[in-house]
């Protein structure tokens, strides 16, 4: 892509430079700006070595997030502030987090340490006093290959201890706090060149009209990981992550409407989602690691069309509808009608998922999610499923189960009323006989067939309170 002017803050200093917006932030930091403290491990979003903190204005507040710089295109830096490990020191002293890592023997080779420190920093920069569990969760996307996690955990505890005893302590160096106000003056959009960042639906419509074949991206987590492997390049990109109307979570006539550009982290933390669709919130916590969830969206998960996508399994159980903005205006389609084959949807070029709608009827049901993978979290599942049901006077009715990983697309099984264990056993057997899953690195065909049965039984055990 041709270079364009991009303005952002790096460790409190304003950078205004002509840069290739499609290139990776990690390469910009290491090879052009010589901030080599940020490391490259996997290059695919899996290890957290490249974690930096990004701050930007959202709903009249500056928020700090840990992100993987290997998955982030440089265009996404426009109007934001990024902090790398070099930005933590103040007056030539180690920062609280760095000192705790040293004190508690939290590092050996030090390759993972910048990423680990930046993950802790992002959490603490948002102020408030996090719990130890918050800190542990903030670190679940950071892998350490040589120290072992005990020292890192102890460092996290030391940091928390200090913050608890000094509640007014600010982890963010003064210079970086000071640029927050100036940050508000930077333009958030990019309206020229090959990487466009529209801020409103109207501008988005215009951008699409003028560039009908442009690649649409939002969090860019899937697109960047794919491009890293394939070397794929795009002529034009429209980044929808900052479209205001697509960044809201609302209840409209008691239906839950989630803007397509809201990140998974914001969905998980949304009080409305936690109250109305608790399992959607808790289920999404199992998707990837925090650094990925800070960028990724449901829309990207839906359009990516993976047959194992956690978001799709959840939304299929919630019988969600998608509001699609196409060339002839808006239309609504049930997610169950979206997929027509392996990674194939009925969406046409230029179609934008604008929001995801869960009806009040669906919100009145109960839900339970199961995910089986090689690790409890931070891993793509072997088989995942989500059950929706009603339960009154111990009678289970309207039971539906959405499954991922057993067919070329996510499927929804409508089961209905279940009166006893015998019926659920038959149902589990019948569903497992219906599918012919593939064998791959995540599990063999036979294992997946067993998992189908086990998931049905496990949902039943949860619903009846036996689990
Ligand atoms: C390390 C790693 C781990 C992961 N782990 C999991 C996991 O455990 N479970 C899981 O389900 N997924 C996982 N994923 C997949 C990925 O994070 C999700 O699919 C994510 O939700 C994609 O969202 P995004 O906004 O980043 O999409 P992008 O990468 O921006 O886009 C993905 C696709 O969606 C399209 N798109 C994006 N937004 C829109 C829109 N509004 N309208 C129309 N099309 C749109 C793009 O054109 C592209 O085709 C993982 C990915 C990585 C890199
Ligand atoms: S290098 Fe591994 S997550 Fe970026
Ligand atoms: S200290 Fe060596 S990988 Fe963590």
Mean pLDDT, as a whole number? Answer: 95
Using DSSP, what is the number of strands?
A: 19
What's the CATH architecture of the largest domain?
2-Layer Sandwich
**Uncertain parts:** none
CATH structural class of the largest domain: Alpha Beta
Strand content: 15-25%
What's the end-to-end separation, in Å?
A: 54 Å
Radius of gyration of CA atoms, rounded to a whole number: 23 Å
CATH topology descriptor of the largest domain: Uridine Diphospho-n-acetylenolpyruvylglucosamine Reductase, domain 3
Number of domains: 2
* Count of helix runs: 17
Task: List ligands, each type once.
Answer: flavin-adenine dinucleotide, FE2/S2 (inorganic) cluster
| Global geometry | globular
The structural class is alpha+beta
Give a verbal description of the structure:
- The protein has 467 residues and is α+β, with helices and mostly antiparallel strands.
- The chain folds into two domains: 4-183, Beta-grasp domain (Ubiquitin-like (UB roll), Roll); 248-464, Uridine Diphospho-n-acetylenolpyruvylglucosamine Reductase, domain 3 (2-Layer Sandwich).
- Helices cover 34% and strands 23% of the residues.
- It has 17 helices and 19 strands.
- It has a five-stranded mixed β-sheet with strand order 2-1-5-3-4.
- Strand 11 (321-326) and strand 12 form a beta hairpin.
- Helix 2 (96-103) crosses helix 5 (149-165) and helix 16 (421-434) runs antiparallel to helix 17 (445-464).
- The longest helix is centred in the last third of the chain and has 20 residues, at 445-464.
- It is globular and about 70 Å long.
- The N and C termini lie far apart (54 Å).
- The mean pLDDT is 95.
- One FE2/S2 (inorganic) cluster binds at residues 40-43, 45-50, 68, 70.
